[in-house]
Structure formats: C-alpha cells, structure tokens
Write a structure and sequence with these properties.
This protein is an alpha/beta fold. The chain is built from 19 helices and 20 strands.
C-alpha cells in the first residue's frame, strides 16, 4: 500500500496553552494523539516567524538555503527590499517535489504559497494572497468550486480597523470555513500528501494575549468578554483536528506542527534609536527629521512606539494584511534619504536585523570589508547582548552574526546581525531605560519553540522526543512516504518517532534537487507582489 502523510499546521500553537487545557480535559483529540504518538518541541527558524518557518517546514531546508528570512526579501541588488511571494523561495516545497515524482498532493492555506504554482493535485493559497480578482487556487477554477461548497470561504481574516470582539468572532468563523473546505477537498480529491494550516491561533494570540494574561500591563484595557477567547480557539482547533483525522485515510501518518510558539509581548527594545545614539546611524540635518522618518516607516512595532515624545504610538493599523506592506519600499527610500551614508556604519533593516554599510555592497558604503567590518559587527553585538531589563533578564535571547546563524548559497541576503528580543521577559515600568518600549496593538509575540506531534500505526506510542526542528518536517514526511530527500536538505529525518518494524522497511535516500529553475506559466513579479506588502504589514509581520 502506498504510504501517505498528512500535515496539519496550527500556526503559533504552544504547549504552554495545550498542556494547560489538556489538564482541564478540554483538548481530547490532541490529548489522544500525544498519548498514542510521539511529541516534542519543534524549534522554529532563527527569527521565529511564519514566513521563514513554514518555508523551512515545507522545503526541509534552512533560511540560507531557501532564501526566506522574513516576509520582506532582498532584491538581487542586495540592498532594497520587497514583500516575498512563492517566486522568491529558492527551494522546492515538498508538494512540488512530490508532484514531480507523480505523487498527488493537496495543500490548503500554506502561508507562503501565492501565487499558486502548478501541482499534481490542488493548492489553496494562504495569507500572501492579496485579495481582489487574483486567483487564489490551483487549478484556478477550484476557487469557484470552493465558494459553492463553502459559501463565503475565508482565505485570511481581515484584521484591519476592527474591534477585538469582531476579530475574535471572525476567527472562530474562519476555523469553521477552513475545516469545511478541508473536508470537502479531502473527500473529493484524495491525495498522497495532505497539508493544511490553520492560522487563526496565531492571529488570536497576537491580538488577544493580554485579554487572557491577567499579569499583562494592558490586561485591564481588554474587553472582559475575550478573556477565554484564545482557549476557545484552541478548543475549536482541537475539534477540527479530531474531525480531520476521522476523515483521513486511517493508513495515513499524521503530523501536527506549529511554526513557532507564543508568549506575552510585554516590552521590546528600540534598536534604531540605540544605533542613532551610539553613532552608528547618522542622519543628515536635524535628528528630529530622522526620527520622523523612522516613525513613519514603523520598521517594527517597537520602533513606532518609542517616539512617544513626538507622537503617541500607533492608534490603529494601516491597511490590512498583505496590503499593509505596500508602502514599505517608498517609505524605506524616504528613511534612507535621511541618512548621511558617508558616516553611517550600521543601520537597522526591515528584514529583522542590523546591516553594515559595507563598501562594494551598499550603494554608498562607508565600511571597508574585512577587519574593519568584523570589528564593528562584534562591537555592536557585544554591546547589545549586555542589555538587561530592570529585573535582570536579558533583553535579547541571542544575537548572531550572519555566519553564525545561516549556511547555504543565499546566506548573503540575510542581515549581518540577527537579533531575537525576549518580549516576555519584563512587564514592569519602562521609564528607567529610554530604549525599552511597551507592546502595541499586538500583546502576544512569537517564541522559538513550536509543537510537534506524530501519530499513526508506524509511530511509537507515548514517546517524548527532543531536538526537532522545523526543517525536519519535510524530510520526515518524505521518509514516511518512502520518497527520497534531496541532497540540499539540511533537515533530518526524525527516525526516533518511528517503530523499529517500520524503520527496517525504510532507508534514507537522496535524489534530485531542491533548487528551482525559473518558474514557467506564472504571473510576473509585479502582479505577484501587488497588495502583499500592505497585508503583511497589518498582520504584524512587518511594520
């Protein structure tokens, strides 16, 4: 019998909440899968974020090999940025590899899958879809079929300019719509690989964490009626998982994964302001002009909120979803225009790190490659890593150089320094440190450890595993399906989850390649990128 696999993604799901609700008897399906299968933490991408995260899970490769570090990616000039699309992913996702090999696939709501490329089966786009008349399925006519079977199907909940109560209500409806579409497609178009992602858990935790968290500084500002909404989302997702497992062929091995964990967003650190004060970032003209430019870009949420002396933090979001990043390119240019590039040695980038103003790479580079660049990089890293919150907790989980963080042919597109802020380490008064900033409309934030659960007749029972990484998902799925990995995959097969009887029937094989040739029969980049930037901005992935 042909081996099949199903991956059910629960975006941002964390064992912190799952374990709590299991103890209360409120997640019977996940409880059963954990008891009867293998489970463990699933380490996220270097920067815990849905875009590099789900790309790593789907391709079996790390960021330096698939080229996605954040939702904004560098153009070939290695300086300017744009919102990512499927066309920017340098490595093939598992459904593309399987399609090439004649296996059938069904993909629903993968966050990084717009525009929808041809597969041997079907694909329904996720959050990168900009809306409007752009096709969101392959084949294109599948969209009409879904709308008929599931009226008012929701590709992604519009969070813009809505009350928290309305957002909560729409997220609960979205789960029902996603489940209904999944069940319809499962039944009508059986496939060897089934892959679906529920993103509602991520949205709810970003917006509503403070409503659940009584210790959050913003808890009292939240509607009391929403204090249990995150729990309700988890319970509804648990029910969806149970229904899908009953619908899926019983010989199929099930994998439940999340792209990162979640925790409170209490406070952050204003990196651009620190670079400015320390003299790495130098403005042309008055300092207020640079602050205004930085504030206008928003760079990230923490940047927008630090300049409270000039203006209050964002009162509301700008645009929705992928449309929210649309102004990023022009605003980035405005920001760059305010800098004195002859004196600037390092600057904060919109892809989540610090970049040296390197000669021969940046258009107006001021830093000589080699010893000078290395000295500045280590100087910044050593200074920032020492920062502590008033309670003594480290502000940064880690600060890594590009070389420490990434490997692969696309590593050079990453920032020179990658920073991970520990947003949940301190919830007290911030007035003692001018670089500390409060949370904004998002009161929950990503953490490095997601969830992994494997269940099926070939999976060991009741086992805990350790050391699993998002990039291990695709290799493990291919191994389960008796398919070869590619030589470029740096994820590993999680052999420890399988029974000894199953392991003797399999061997790890490698064939083909993960790297793509130029895609044919797809819309050009202008079309693919239209509207995506604004949408990502409003979702909180970029600001």
């Amino acid at each position: 019998m042909t081996s099949k696999a199903a991956v059910i993604g629960l975006d941002g799901a964390t064992f912190e909440i799952i374990d709590l609700l299991i103890d209360q008897g409120k997640l019977p399906n996940l409880e059963r899968l954990i008891e009867e299968g293998c489970t463990g933490f699933l380490r996220s991408s270097i920067t815990p974020n849905s875009f590099p995260g789900w790309t790593s899970a789907a391709t079996g490769t790390s960021e330096g090999r698939h080229g996605i570090f954040m939702p904004l990616v560098r153009r070939e000039d290695n300086f300017t940025l744009k919102a990512m699309t499927t066309l920017d992913i340098k490595a093939k996702p598992v459904w593309e590899l399987l399609s090439e090999r004649g296996r059938t696939v069904g993909v629903i709501n993968d966050p990084c899958s717009f525009p929808a490329l041809n597969v041997n089966g079907y694909l329904v786009c996720g959050m990168l879809w900009p809306g409007g008349e752009h096709p969101f399925t392959y084949p294109e006519n599948l969209a009409t079929e879904i709308e008929t079977a599931v009226p008012s199907y929701i590709v992604d909940v519009n969070l813009h300019n809505k009350s928290k109560e309305q957002i909560a209500s729409e997220l609960l409806v979205s789960i029902d719509k996603r489940l209904a579409a999944s069940r319809y497609l499962l039944k009508k178009y059986p496939s060897d690989l089934y892959w679906t992602v529920f993103t509602e858990s991520d949205r709810a935790q970003h917006r509503l964490w403070a409503a659940m968290d009584k210790e959050h500084p913003k808890h009292k500002e939240q509607p009391p009626s929403l204090s249990n909404t995150i729990f309700e989302i988890y319970q509804k997702l648990d029910r969806a998982v149970g229904i899908l497992i009953n619908d899926i062929d019983p010989d199929t091995t099930i994998f439940i994964v999340s792209d990162h964990g979640f925790g409170p967003f209490y406070s952050a650190f204003d990196i651009p302001r620190w670079l400015l004060d320390k003299g790495y970032l130098v403005e042309r003209g008055e300092k207020a002009k640079l602050k205004s430019a930085l504030k206008k870009i928003g760079v990230l949420d923490e940047v927008a909120s630090v300049y409270q002396a000039i203006r209050k933090p964002f009162q509301k979001e700008i645009g929705y979803g992928v449309t929210k990043l649309k102004s990023q390119e022009s605003e980035t240019q405005n920001y760059f225009d305010k800098l004195d590039w002859s004196k600037t040695t390092a600057y904060y980038t919109l892809d989540g790190g610090i970049r040296l103003n390197l000669k021969g790479r940046e258009p107006f580079g001021a830093v000589e490659p080699g010893q000078m660049a290395e000295k500045i990089k280590q100087e910044i890293k050593n200074a920032l890593i020492k920062h502590k919150y008033p309670n003594g907790e480290a502000v940064f989980r880690y600060i890594l150089t590009q070389e420490e963080a990434f490997d692969g042919p696309y590593r050079h597109f990453a920032p020179d320094l990658v920073l991970s802020i520990n947003y949940g380490a301190y919830k007290g008064d911030l007035s003692s440190d001018k670089y500390l900033t409060p949370s904004n409309h998002n009161t929950g934030e990503h953490t490095p450890d997601g969830i992994f659960i494997a269940w099926g007749k070939n999976i060991r029972r009741g086992e805990q595993i350790s050391g699993a990484n998002l990039k291990d998902v695709a290799p493990t799925v291919l191994f389960q399906m008796d398919e070869a990995l590619t030589p470029e995959m740096d994820g590993r097969v999680l052999q420890e989850i399988f029974t000894s009887e199953f392991l003797v029937s399999r061997e790890i094989k490698r064939a083909g390649t993960s790297y793509k040739q130029t895609h044919q029969n797809v819309q050009d980049e202008v079309f693919a990128n239209e509207g995506i930037e604004d949408k990502l901005r409003s979702l909180g992935y970029m600001q």
